[in-house]
Design goal:
about 400 residues; alpha+beta; 2 domains; six-stranded mixed beta barrel; single chain
């Protein structure tokens, strides 16, 4: 065993009378332990939130979305789009016609988005998990129904048991000027069948059959977008590139990240912001090692002088206190990560830390463990520990000649 490591191990683990140096070293180790465990837990919680939020978004966000590069609508009846509809890699191919409209219910009004969709939209089996009241029904017995977001339902105080339909007003683009303002609008009634809740970006939507939207918006052919979900196992990125190449420059094709750029940026910013705060706390904890090792140097002046007299060089003396600092940091880090892992696994299984009754989507704090997070914590603690231990070890040989003279 390396002499420096052996002596450092003896200083750290040998039985001796407890005094201030041992207490400070223990506090330093405890600080690294708490910081490492906190990093593992916080990163895992953010992973869990990211998985839950993106899972909720994926209920309404398709894997690929085709939109016109210019304008608001396009004709989907081209040769390529008809071929794309029959592509074996496509699980669902949904034509969407979407536009803002005025929604009225019992003398209350709300400006929301009418989203008309074709039948493939309902192939998404996760839609039912978003329903708060009623069901996700768009057509039944030749009757059209609307499934409305929680914001729409709350603003209009919609009661699904009330037979009163939603009254929807959309601008009539073909209307001539008239003294009656109502002639400038197309008005249609539709009954709500369910209320869903995901997030503010989606909860102002009323989903209807596309036939109803075409009639309301007086748009018999064009669509706002085509939403595509792929068969499991499909390389979505390669499929996206293929569609871009074949569809031409008139269209944009976005994957889920590109459709929700701000969401992904926000999740990453929050994650790294919290990570940096905890790293600063960890830096303070680890740099306590400098204080404990400095006191250890003072306490071991005679030992250092004896070692120097026996021929030990500055490198060996410096190595003793460097490895002492690394042991303190290493033990605290490994123990912290193990405890953090155990805590996360228990939270995953039992969910004993709840988020509160106001949260309807998830009950307990979500957890997702990722191996790269443990590597990140280990590298972060290791880097800071090396810096702190190196500073401490340099202090140990600063006045080595004076220490030898005192012997």
């Amino acid at each position: 065993m390396n002499t420096s490591v052996y002596i450092a191990k003896r200083y750290l683990f040998s039985r001796k009378k407890m005094h201030a140096i041992n207490i400070i070293s223990g506090i330093s180790m405890l600080g690294v332990f708490v910081g490492s465990a906190a990093l593992v837990i916080i990163l895992s919680v953010f992973n869990g939130f990211e998985k839950v939020i993106l899972g909720l978004y994926s209920n309404f966000t398709p894997e690929l979305k085709i939109e016109p590069r210019f304008g608001k609508a396009f004709d989907p009846n081209t040769t390529y789009f008809m071929q794309l509809h029959k592509d074996p890699r496509v699980f669902s191919y949904t034509q969407v016609l979407q536009e803002k409209a005025l929604i009225m219910y019992n003398n209350k009004s709300f400006i929301g988005n009418i989203k008309g969709v074709t039948a493939d939209f309902l192939k998404n089996k996760q839609l039912d998990s978003t329903i708060q009241d009623g069901s996700f029904t768009l057509q039944s017995d030749s009757m059209n129904y609307a499934v409305i977001g929680g914001t729409v339902a709350g603003s209009l105080s919609v009661n699904l048991s009330d037979p009163t339909p939603l009254r929807i007003y959309a601008p009539n683009r073909t209307a001539m000027s008239s003294s009656d303002p109502l002639n400038e609008f197309i008005v249609r009634n539709i009954s709500p069948s369910g209320v869903f809740s995901i997030q503010q970006d989606f909860d102002d939507i009323a989903v209807t059959p596309i036939s109803f939207a075409r009639e309301l918006l007086n748009e018999p052919v064009d669509v706002s977008s085509i939403e595509i979900n792929c068969v499991k196992g499909t390389d979505v990125d390669a499929f996206q590139r293929e569609i871009i190449d074949r569809a031409g420059g008139k269209y944009t094709v976005k994957n889920r990240i590109q459709q929700n750029t701000e969401l992904y940026k926000t999740l990453n910013y929050e994650r790294w912001f919290i990570f940096m705060i905890l790293v600063f706390v960890l830096i303070i904890a680890i740099f306590n090692i400098i204080g404990s090792l400095t006191m250890l140097v003072i306490d071991k002046r005679k030992d250092i002088a004896i070692l120097s007299s026996l021929g030990a060089g500055k490198k060996l003396v410096q190595g003793i206190f460097f490895f002492e600092g690394m042991m303190i940091s290493g033990i605290g880090c490994i123990a912290g990560m193990v405890v953090g892992l155990i805590f996360c696994m228990l939270q995953q299984k039992y969910g004993f830390i709840k988020m509160g009754a106001s949260m309807s989507v998830i009950d307990a704090y979500p957890i997702e463990l990722r191996l790269k997070d443990f590597g990140l914590v280990l590298l972060t603690v290791g880097f800071i520990a090396v810096m702190a231990s190196w500073i401490s070890s340099r202090l140990s040989i600063k006045n080595l000649d004076d220490i030898k003279g005192d012997l």
